[in-house]
Structures are given as structure tokens and as C-alpha cells.
Specification:
about 280 residues, about 35% helix, four-stranded antiparallel beta sheet, globular, seven-stranded mixed beta sheet, alpha/beta
Amino acid sequence: MSEASWILTLTCHDRVGVVAGVTGLLARHDGFILDSQQYADLETGRFFMRVVFTGGGPRFPADGERLRQALGGVAAEFELDWSLSRADQRPRIVVAVSKGSHCLNDLLHRQQSGALSAEIVAVVSNHDKLRGLTEWHGLPYHLLDGDNAAQEAAIDAVMADADADFLVLARYMQILSPEFAGRLAGKCINIHHSFLPGFKGAKPYHRAHERGVKLIGATAHFVTSDLDEGPIVEQAVERVDHRASVDDLIRIGRDIEAQVLARAVNALGDRRVFLNGNRTVVFR
């Protein structure tokens, strides 16, 4: 059996025979399926599928190009929007930060320990505070100067130079322009507390404490031109009570933000996230 494994992701208009068509083609080419997940959204009429497979016999194509050619027929038949990648090829990400270190530090540690399914290739920031942390991990740190337009142009250049697939906003406290968010559609995720749409703006934990909240949480979502309203990738919450101070809420919130963002990045890296209108399909 071939050592290399592949990940096929696809979405299409739901119809009879898609699973049989894909798995049948793999079987005819000696593809050995390691994992398969699928979901039919009856509301939108869309079908989603993720298949991990490897070679299981002599008919399996020897390289990626021949494998893509083999899949072309079934892709055309079912009008698939599809992607094929080697499982060991991690998507490349640029991380944007401001002054808060908790999310960046967690992602860098996970990368160093081999627990991140994507590869951080650069860090950009509108402050110089986290340069030491970034460079200690051997990564380039780009300080963003000028107005918002200049900073967004610099991010574009960094992503192009690094051949990055995604931009991850790890507590980057700048609002992206609608034009920039549009260019990054499906390629940019953000993390924030889950109080929204309540407690917008500065010091949300202070105002949440004043209201006596009982749940602290975080949300990772795709960035769109609608501020903090993009399709949700991952969320988590933790209960608190009357004994929690503002500092307690901030500490708990930062821990959850780091965990949720890491799970979202790993889901992207494993090709488990599909956009589905204003929602997402995230295979586990």
C-alpha cells in the first residue's frame, strides 16, 4: 500500500449517486479509503464530502497530476467544486496580531510541538511588542506602518511572498476594509469573545462583569465585510459565577480564545471546513 495519503474535498448540488461515483472511481484505481465523511444539507440542497485515501494496488496513479486526471471525469459528471491535496502538505498561514500575545503564543507553541495542522510562515502586526516572541520561534515579523490601506497592502505583499493560503487574525485589533475582506473571502479567520452582539467595543469583560454573565466563550469565524458576523468555524464556552472578578473573566476568556482559534486553524489545516452560505460544515 502506498505510504502517501491524499485528501479529497468536494461540494456540489445534492443528487443521487455522488458517493457511489467518487468511491467507485477510487476503487477502480485501487484507491484505499482511510476515512470518509459526507453531509447533505436538505435546506440548501448542497452536498459536502471529505475523503482521505491512499494507494492500495498497482492501478493507483503514481503522481498527483495523474490522480487529478483520473478524478476529472467524476468531477465533470457531478459538477463538483473539488480540491485534492496530499495529507502531509500543510496549508501556509500568516498570523496578524496587535499587542495581545495569548493566541499567537499558543499557535507558535503548537507549531513547535508538532500539534498544528497548518504552517505559520510569517507574523504581521501593527505594534512591535511581539517581535521577540515571533523571532525566537525563527519566524519573520513584519511591522505594519501607515494608514489602513498601506497596512492591508503590506499584508497582501507578505502573503504573496510567503505563498500563504490563509490569514489568521489572532487578536489583531484593526477593522479590515470591506474591499480587503472581500479579497480574502474564505481565506481569513478571526477570533473574539462570544459576548457579541452584546458588549461591543472596549473592555467587554468589564461590562460583562457588571451584568453578571454566567458564560464566558470565544468564537472563531470567517471574516466578511460584515464586522464579526462571518460564518462560524468553532466556538466554546465555560461557566462562571458570582465569585469571578474581571481579571478572572479575562484570564478564562483568553484561555478559551487560544483553544478555539487553535481548533479552527487545525480544522482548516486538515481540510475539514466547508463554507455553506452564511454557515459552515466542519467535519470532526
